[in-house]
Amino acid sequence: MMLHAELPDYICLPDPFSTDFYERFAREIDVYFAYAFSMSTSHFLVELAAERGVELRSIVDMGCGSGWTAIDLARRGYRVTGLDLSQNMLDLGRSRAEVVSATVAWIRGDFCDFDLDQPVDLAVCLGESVGYLHTPARFVTHLQTVARNLKSGGLYVAQFSFPIFHWATVDCDIRPPFVVFSGFEPIARTARGTVDGVEVEFDAYGDIVHYDPASQICQSHLRVVRHEPSGPVVHEQLEAHRIYHPAEVDALARLSDCFEPVGWYADFFLDAPLAGRPDSPCFISVLRRR
Ligand SMILES: C[S@@+](CC[C@H](N)C(=O)[O-])C[C@H]1O[C@@H](n2cnc3c(N)ncnc32)[C@H](O)[C@@H]1O
Fold first, then answer.
1. Contact yes or no for 238/14 (Cβ under 8 A)
2. Tens digit of pLDDT for each residue in 147-193?
């Protein structure tokens, strides 16, 4: 799906820009999602809901990819919907859910424009998928869409990449292959695995090519390497994601007229508040539906 339309002219995106890479290389990227998946995310969401007095029964995972977290939540007994633009990602999720006998409703759709049958108790947008909302206006549209699918008092949890994660990479010019630096700790962003008997690598954020402070848009390469018997075959595409700042998310949430910011975390642990954690590679915002 092309996402260029309706952008103001201070924004420069790679041309053509799309998120089709997720569709074309779903199985290779799934290798990375499997590597990045952690049960601590679901654990955090469940504990958070309890702490905030939300009786948690139903959840929508927006930009769910191949559904690792959606399935984990379903296995814990919640009614889960996984929503994504990529049909191939959803198909991978569906197959895996069948294997582990988990029930998830899989919906192909845009997290800026969808309608569930019934509003849910918790909406999540994980793995920095919110970065694909390239303008503050689109983020507000997203929030308003989420709000009509969320019960009053329900929670919205989104994971954003934290600016230092990118600035460290851009400014310090430290770009060894497959590793970026956050603060002082190197974070491996490459996963390796096997697809159809072929060894593959997926490199997320390995090489940031441009950060535009005017639009807060960061361009980097998504890169898949397939080690075919004849030699490595590299598929590469520029992707662009917007860096949001906590104060901005706070302001846009209030501007949406639907949400109240209620919590900020540096990681998927209730005892990891964002305050005092400038070295964190991400931040997690918790908004409550009015
Ligand atoms: C970085 S991946 C994150 C996947 C998953 N949440 C995780 O943490 O592993 C981003 C996902 O968002 C999906 N996506 C991007 N834009 C979207 C949109 N507007 N609506 C729904 N899904 C979208 C992509 O297809 C992709 O599967």
1. yes
2. 999 999 999 999 998 655 554 444 444 333 333 444 334 445 678 89
What whole-number distance in Å separates Cα of residue 135 and Cα of residue 242? Answer: 7
pLDDT at residue 121 in the model: 98
Q: In the chain, where are the structural domains located?
A: 20-163+244-289, 165-240
For residue 177, cis peptide bond before it (omega within 30 degrees of 0)? no
Ligand 1 pocket test: pick from 1, 45, 129, 149 the residue with the most ligand atoms within 8 Å of its Cβ.
129
Tokens found for residue 155: 């929670």
Q: How far is the CA of 67 from the centre of ligand 1 (A)?
A: 10
The fold for domain 20-163+244-289 equals Rossmann fold (3.40.50)
More confident: 252 or 174 = 252
Question: Residues with beta carbon inside 6 Å of ligand 1?
Answer: 19, 22, 33, 36, 63-65, 68, 83-86, 89, 110-112, 126-129, 132
